């Protein structure tokens, strides 16, 4: 009912209403007492009526016209019951219309129209509502109110505030008027309410009216909900999709995008994802489809879906379970390495009996160039699986392993997921190189993530921060490699089966070179066997004088250098075939890099050969002692670690304490400065195992007895001259053998370690086992003045 406002009217004003009033015919509406409402007046005659009212006491009689189209209604065209109003405010608008706000005061019955021009004027009588009687009226009021409320809830045409307004009215007649004006029925109905002077009757009429209204609203609602239901659920989605399509077509984006989404959908359907991940992927695709093309989210989501799809959810390689064939593959690729090959064949055998068995997690430990990585590749070949390799060296950030959350700009999955993508199969051989070189810092501990990967209990649901969904790694065969076992966190070490690669003997290197490295390098340089022959002695010379390593990496590099130079000659058409003899090596490889054979040319005083052990394998280690007149000071050089320095001091103390027995004058130490140097100063050295070597060199220097040049030794010394066992025997013996040493002094307790040595190495060396220092000296030192 628009901007009607209802006011209280006091009887005082009603009593002042005159009997003769200007009449204003109104169309389409009826104004009830207590209602304030603005009206627009355009007709000339109406304006004159208004002006008349304003010039008198502002009272005006409003009467509805029966035919709303009639522009100049005569008395017979008007209803005879109207409303007397007071004009509150008048506003002339530029287009000659007048806006007037009127306040309804009371019903008025027209007795007679007494003037037609220049405006209508009538004689009327004010009608006051009769006093309602009986209880019936309350029932009617309640009923009307209830129905009104019902209508209000059925539709939204009636403003909800009206309820509060209506409830405050307690006069029955006024209530009927107010409700009618809110419900806004037809003009006839409104007029009928106006013309009804008995409040009870008026309420009855209103109730009938409200019933009809409620029914209409009910019907309206049913239709509405039917339409709505049709649109809900699938249809609604369809409708939205269609609309989206239409919009995209309008923008010219439809075709490519639609095709792209369709392709993605197909891929998701056929990826064989686990149910939950499948659902999630479809949901993400849905979100992607609804994103505006320009949104930066699009690429992020697209990349994510691509990653999700690149995981080998259900693709696996068939295992080749033929043991003989697998053994052949392993032998064709690598010489020796019996322990590794045996372990792989065992695994295959068990797997044949129990296909559900989980793969072992192998850890290959050994110096560089011994074939750890390349045998991994060969294992994959033997099993018929994919091979992937990642390097863990220098990784300090857990995110490198496990990925970064997608909320970071440019986030990517971690190395594991990347590796699985490369593999493209659920069950690759997955090599993690340099597991001893992972670090840890404030960005989290990468080994914690590795633990999860390598734990058979957990790795069927590995969680990458980027991928977010769990990835099953339980069919993967993990192999890790390390130079040293010690730096690997023990929790990780416990999960792996360690296989040691001690390094190769000269003999093994010869075989590897002849059977594998030379043919491989020839092929890589496009040479035929007839182009290049590297003689047996030549290879030996390369091994002895151009390399000193546990593995064969440098050996392979030197062979490659020769091949490269030959290839250049062949390509230039100079010559077709080369045979490389030892005397040619200088021309091909430059000056020899290592001295082979005896550590020293002569038996020397104050110089002993020890055996060291480094991540790159065992090697010989010279110890030099020189004496000069002084005050008994000790100087140590050659980058010796704390333990090695202490070892040197212990050796000195031992020698001083035993001076008499060794035939040294007691005052010698007080007037002599001792300088101990361990050459190859740029390499840090540490550990207690040079103890007996230091003592031997020192005693040799003081007693002037030379040290046998063919002897090398290792062992820890105590103050009392006991010789304690040391580690790394196998590597050290290989190193000694490589360097051309023939006699070895070892602590008694290390005797058992020789079992692991290759037989021909053991046979090539002479061992002396000792438990006390005098025995060391007995073997190592020559009599005084016997320098050769
Ligand atoms: N037993 C072997 N038989 C044949 N080739 C070998 C053998 N051991 C090492 N190689 C070769 O030596 C090179 C270095 O091996 P690599 O696997 O890189 O060593 P690592 O990973 O232990 O450092 C490779 O070309 C490899 O094929
Ligand atoms: Mg390697």
Blueprint of the fold:
Blueprint: E1 5-6, H1 11-15, E2 20-26, E3 35-41, H2 44-55, E4 59-64, E5 81-92, E6 98-115, E7 121-127, H3 136-154, H4 161-167, H5 172-183, H6 187-194, H7 199-231, H8 233-250, H9 254-270, H10 275-290, H11 297-310, H12 323-333, H13 338-353, E8 362-365, H14 372-383, E9 387-391, H15 398-402, H16 415-423, E10 429-433, H17 446-454, E11 462-463, E12 470-471, E13 477-482, H18 490-494, E14 497-500, H19 506-524, E15 532-534, H20 536-546, H21 553-572, E16 578-580, H22 585-589, E17 607-614, E18 617-629, E19 634-637, H23 642-657, H24 659-662, E20 672-677, H25 691-703, E21 711-713, E22 716-717, E23 723-724, H26 729-739, E24 743-747, H27 759-764, E25 766-770, H28 773-780
Parallel strand pairs: 2-4, 8-13, 8-14, 9-10, 10-13, 15-16, 19-20, 21-24, 24-25
Antiparallel strand pairs: 1-3, 2-7, 3-6, 4-5, 5-6, 6-7, 11-12, 17-18, 18-20, 22-23
Helix pairs in contact: 3-5, 3-7, 5-7, 6-7, 9-10, 10-11, 12-13, 12-14, 19-20, 19-21, 23-25
Magnesium ion is lined by residues 372-373, 433, 481.
Model description:
The protein is α/β, with parallel strands linked by helices. Helix content is 43%, strand content 18%. The chain has a 5-stranded mixed beta barrel. A 5-stranded parallel beta sheet has the order 9-10-13-8-14, sandwiched between helices. The protein has a 4-stranded mixed beta sheet with strand order 17-18-20-19. Helix 6 packs antiparallel against helix 7, helix 12 runs antiparallel to helix 14 and helix 19 packs across helix 20. It is elongated and about 165 Å long.
